[in-house]
Amino acid sequence: MKTDRIIVSEEIRTKSGRPLEIGTGTGTQWKWLKLEQKERGKSSVSEELVSQLLTCFEVGFYHVDTAEVYTTHPEIGEAVKRSGIDRNDLFITSKFNGGIDEAPRTSKNPREALNKILKELDMDFVDLFLVHQPFFDSDESELSLESVWSQMIELKNEGKARYIGVSNFAVCHLERLFRNFRKSDYPVVNQIEFHPCLQNQSRGIVQFCQKNNILIEAYAPLAPLLGSSDDSQERQPLVSVLEKLSTRYEKTGAQILLRYCLQKSILPITTSSKRERIEQSLDVYNFSIRDDDMEMLDIEGSRYALQKFFKGAYENL
Ligand code: NDP
Description:
The protein is of the alpha/beta class. The protein is built from twelve helices and eight strands. The longest helix is centred in the N-terminal third of the chain and has 13 residues. The protein is globular, with a radius of gyration of 19 Å. It starts with about 20 loop residues before the first strand and ends in a 15-residue tail after the last helix.
C-alpha cells in the first residue's frame, strides 16, 4: 500500500487541474437556517464561519462543501475573496434542495437555485452541483427526478456547474437516471453518509457506484467518534477499537476514520471549528492502515449500526 496522496478520482479536478482532496463542510456545524436567523441579524455574513474557512484555506484545504439549505454561500464567497486564492485552484460544491419535510424547497428548480447560489458566492460557476436528496419525487410534487436531472445537464452544458452529481441517492434512483439519460450525462458523484458503522447508506450503494464510476463522497465520516446525535454524550462502542488503532499508528481516531475512507477510494468531507483538528484532517497521507486493521474496522463497525441522517428513509427501497 502506497502511503502518499491517494487520488480518489483521476477525472474530477479543479479547473486548474488539481485532483480532488478531502473537503471541508459548512453544513452540520452551522445548523442550517437557524444560524441565519440568530447570527445574521446585523451583518450579512458570519465572521466566525469566514474565519474558520480562512483557517481551512491556510492549512491547505481547497475543496469546500455547501448547499442551498446551509445558507453559507455568502461566507464562502467572502472567505475566497479575502484569501486571495485563485478561484480555479478551488473546488466548490453546492446542492439543489428539491424539498423534504424538515427542509422545504426554497427554489423553483435547479436553475433558479444555482443562479441564486452564484450570486451569493459572487462567482461564475460552481465546480460540482448536486441534487441534495431524491425524496422530493412523489405524486404530489411538480418536480420529478427526470425533470430535475434534465435541468442539471443544461446547467453543466452552460458551464455554470463544471460537474453534476447527486447525494443520498439509492441504487433505484440512479437506475432511473441511467434509463433516461446518456452515459456522458450520468452523475459523477454520490455524496452519502459513510463510516465503519454505516458502510452502505442504502442497499449495495457503494459497490454499485464504484462499479459505475460514480465517486462516493462520505459525509459524517467521524460519526463513530461522536455518538448518535450532536449533543449525545454516549460513548460509541467503536471508540475503543479506534483508540487501539490510534496507539498503533500514532494518529487520532479522526485521522484513522478519514484514512479508512480514502483507502476505500471514498472521499471524506469533514468539519471542525478547531484549528488543530483542521490541520490533523489533512495529515492523513503519511501512513496507511494495514489490511487486517481495515477488516477489523469493517467487522467491528458493522456490529454497531449508526446513522445520523435520513434514518428510515431507505427501509422500503
Ligand atoms: P464530521 O464527521 O467531520 O463531523 C463533524 C463534527 O466532528 C464536528 O462537530 C466536529 O466538532 C467534530 N470533530 C471534528 N474533528 C474531530 C476530531 N478530531 N475528534 C472528535 N471530533 C471531531 O462531518 P459532518 O457530519 O460535519 O459532515 C461533513 C459535511 O458534509 C457537512 O458540513 C456538510 O457540508 C456535509 N453534509 C452533507 C449531507 C448531505 O445530505 N449531503 C448531510 C450532512 C453533512 P469540532 O468543531 O468541535 O471539532
